[in-house]
C-alpha cells in the first residue's frame, strides 16, 4: 500500500481509489466482527448505542492524521525524516460515512438500525467549552490541539520514526493547525448509532 499512497500516512484527496478501498475493506471486516460479537452478548430486542468518529461524505478526509502527514512531508524535504519511513507508515484509523455504516449493519444482519445521526465537534472542543473565542487566538488553539493529539498519536509515531523527532513534529503540527484555523473551523464528524438486536 505504501507505494500507492507514497508520501501520505492516511487517505487524502489525491490518494488512489485502491487506498480508500483497502481502508474501507478493513473497516468493514472489523465492524462486522464487532457487531457479531456484541450480538452474542445481547438478548433479542436488546439495544446497543454507539458513538464514534466518522466523516460527512465520501470525499472528506480532513483529520489530524492528514495534518501530521503534512508536517512529516515537510520534515522529509528538510532531511529530518527518512522518506522511506514516511512511505511505509500508514495510520490505521478509518472514519466511515453514515451510508457505509448503514450498509455494513444491514449486510451483517444481527441488528436492526433504529437511528443514525451525525454531530460535529471542533478539534479543540474542550477549549471551546471553557473559554470564549475572543480570549484564545489560533496559535493557542493550535498548541492545545497538538497536545492532546500528541497524547494519542505519539506511541504509534514513535515506533516508526523514533522519539527524537516528536517535539519538532508536534511543534510543526501546532503551527499548521493554527494556520488552518485562520481559514476554517476544524471539526470531527461523529456518528451516533442506535440499533436493536434482531
Gist of the model:
It holds the Pfam family Methyltransf_7. With 198 residues, the chain is of the alpha+beta class. The chain has seven helices and three strands.
Sum up the structure in keywords.
3 strands, three-stranded antiparallel beta sheet, metal ion binding, 198 residues, methyltransferase activity, methyltransferase, 7 helices, alpha+beta, Non-ribosomal Peptide Synthetase Peptidyl Carrier Protein, Chain A, 53% helix, transferase, single chain, 16% strand, MeTrfase_capping
Layout of SSEs?
Layout lengths: L16 H25 L5 E8 L9 H14 L5 H6 L9 H11 L2 E12 L2 H6 L7 H24 L4 H18 L3 E11 L1
Antiparallel strand pairs: 1-3, 2-3
Helix pairs in contact: 2-7, 6-7
H/E series: HEHHHEHHHE
CATH fold annotation: Non-ribosomal Peptide Synthetase Peptidyl Carrier Protein, Chain A
The counted number of beta strands is: 3
Counting copies of identical and different chains, the oligomeric state is: single chain
* CATH-defined architecture: Orthogonal Bundle
Biggest sheet descriptor:
3 strands, antiparallel
Radius of gyration: 19 Å
Overall geometry: globular
Strand ordering within the main sheet: 1-3-2
Q: Give the N-terminus to C-terminus distance in angstroms.
A: 38 Å
Structural class given helices, strands, pairing?
alpha+beta
Give the count of structural domains: 1
Assign the CATH class. Answer: Mainly Alpha
Low-confidence stretches: none
Helix content: 40-55%
Q: Which range does the strand content fall in?
A: 15-25%
Assigned CATH superfamily: Methyltransferase, alpha-helical capping domain
Averaged pLDDT: 90
Amino acid at each position: 500500500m505504501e507505494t500507492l499512497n507514497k508520501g501520505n500516512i492516511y487517505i487524502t484527496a489525491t490518494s488512489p481509489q485502491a487506498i480508500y478501498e483497502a481502508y474501507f475493506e478493513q473497516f468493514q471486516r472489523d465492524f462486522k466482527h464487532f457487531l457479531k460479537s456484541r450480538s452474542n452478548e445481547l438478548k433479542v430486542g436488546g439495544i446497543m448505542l454507539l458513538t464514534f468518529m466518522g466523516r460527512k461524505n465520501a470525499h472528506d478526509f480532513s483529520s489530524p492524521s492528514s495534518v501530521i502527514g503534512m508536517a512529516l512531508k515537510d520534515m522529509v524535504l528538510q532531511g529530518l525524516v527518512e522518506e522511506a519511513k514516511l512511505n511505509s507508515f500508514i495510520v490505521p484509523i478509518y472514519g466511515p460515512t453514515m451510508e457505509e455504516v448503514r450498509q455494513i449493519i444491514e449486510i451483517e444482519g444481527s441488528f436492526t438500525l433504529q437511528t443514525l445521526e451525525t454531530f460535529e465537534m471542533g478539534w479543540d472542543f474542550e477549549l471551546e467549552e471553557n473559554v470564549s473565542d475572543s480570549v484564545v487566538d489560533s496559535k493557542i488553539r493550535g498548541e492545545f490541539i497538538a497536545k492532546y493529539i500528541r497524547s494519542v498519536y505519539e506511541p504509534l509515531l514513535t515506533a516508526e520514526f523514533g522519539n527524537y523527532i516528536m517535539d519538532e513534529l508536534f511543534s510543526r503540527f501546532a503551527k499548521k493547525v493554527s494556520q488552518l484555523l485562520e481559514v476554517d473551523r476544524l471539526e470531527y464528524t461523529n456518528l451516533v448509532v442506535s440499533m436493536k438486536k434482531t
